[in-house]
Amino acid sequence: MKLELKNITKQFPGVKALDDVSLTFSGGEVHALLGENGAGKSTLIKTICGIQKSDQGKVILNDKELDLGSLKEGMSYGITIVNQEIQVFSESSIAENIMMDKLENYRKSAGIDWATLNTEAVVYLERVGLDLDPEMPIGSLSAAQKQLVQIAKALSRDADVILLDEPTSSITENEVAKLFSLVRELRDKGIIMIFVSHKLEEVLEICDVVSVLRDGKHVGTQPISALNKESIVEMMIGRKVLVEEFDELVVDKNDLILQAKDVSLAGVFEDASFDLRRGEILGFYGLVGSGRTELAKTIIGHTPKTGGTVLLNGKAVDITSVSQCIEKYSIGYVSENRKEEGLFLEFDIESNITITIWKRIANKISRAIDMVKQNTMAKDLMKQLDVRATGPSQIVGDLSGGNQQKISIAKWLAADCDILIIDEPSVGVDVGAKSTIHQLIWELANKFGKSIILISSDMPEMISLSSRVVVFKERKITGVVPGIATGNQNYADMSREIGGLMA
Prior knowledge:
Layout: E1 2-12, E2 15-26, E3 30-34, H1 41-49, E4 56-61, E5 64-66, H2 71-76, E6 79-82, H3 94-99, E7 107-108, E8 111-112, H4 114-127, H5 143-155, E9 161-165, H6 173-188, E10 192-196, H7 200-206, E11 209-214, E12 217-223, H8 229-237, E13 256-265, E14 269-277, E15 281-286, H9 292-299, E16 307-312, E17 315-317, H10 322-327, E18 331-334, H11 338-342, H12 349-354, H13 358-361, H14 371-384, H15 401-415, E19 419-423, H16 431-446, E20 451-455, H17 459-465, E21 468-473, E22 476-482, H18 491-502
Parallel strand pairs: 3-10, 3-11, 6-9, 9-10, 15-20, 15-21, 18-19, 19-20
Antiparallel strand pairs: 1-2, 1-4, 4-5, 7-8, 11-12, 13-14, 13-16, 16-17, 21-22
């Protein structure tokens, strides 16, 4: 089994996304495709699976040149993709989403054989570690569960080439272990596995070969045995980066800005209690469905709580909507799901960044937005976060996943909230941008006194940034672990203690 790309070139207005790229992917190995945001990975993936045609070059599968004009054509040759961005039919069942492209196989004279379809869907759900009713509407699942369903869908296609685009972006270590076991199983069957990720620890663990793109060009391919994290980073960005270490955040333990006391949401989580100090970074860590994101959304008024009390600066508050949370209580929320909740993809960058402050920059009489202020704010934040774009007028939907994430964060930086809840900040973000975002999160707390709740499935991210880590298990908080910068902890100790509270 062999997939060859020969001299692939793709030009967009103002940028050459791919510049004479030639690569070979072989069956029986997991081949990592790496590069910073904007390096050309997404364009190359779309070319391989047929979503878009290259301007020049050839795609050859098992010595047969392919002329792909659509994703459906790619699938007809056994090429399938697990997208980083969640793409599901929210009103349909889990089983329907898994079998959507195969419904004709279950058609009978009286209609669809739902019993057989559901039974076979369960097989693929079990392979990705999901114990769910196949008839449930998929719209009710968390982002991480939807992502695992997408992986189950790819497995159901019995493909010869599987492209995994940031497959672990919203899942925790337990889910990752299950997924990697599957990847190894598929690799050993001779399937071509192309793995796109910004998590270099995972690349080193699961991949056999690494290819790197930089500025649209192929800069090298190496066996994983010849590489380490530092050498991969140097290939990606052309320079070395330092290991992230952050000083301890000095906070007053008695200066509590936000408290939750026995907060519950019936059937989702129960009796959750924590306190957030002014100027600290408080981590929320747990498995998918453990209640961490659901608690955060209840705090901001997205979902009404069914019990307990929320206090802000020592006073009980009743937050009933997200808009009230922002405008009255100065609490912002960076969603884990930027596509569905975080951004308006059809709008330009400056509109997305400034939407939270339109009232603030509008003319009091005419109510018209001050376009100069909007443009200046957008440019400043784009520069601060190193957003790779043609300018503030570029449509957000045309940006790479990592740059979209930066815009999602920039929106709340513009709002200048006192409390910021950041859910999976580095999902789909490359190593350089990830470091930038981490430094920014730490500076928001250290220099500007912002109070931050950090929700992450990335253990190194959680441990390096958090002042304390609140651990969730089975819809409850099981304990709080002191941060690594206190001087009393190291990475191994923290990881072990967090794992013990989740066991």
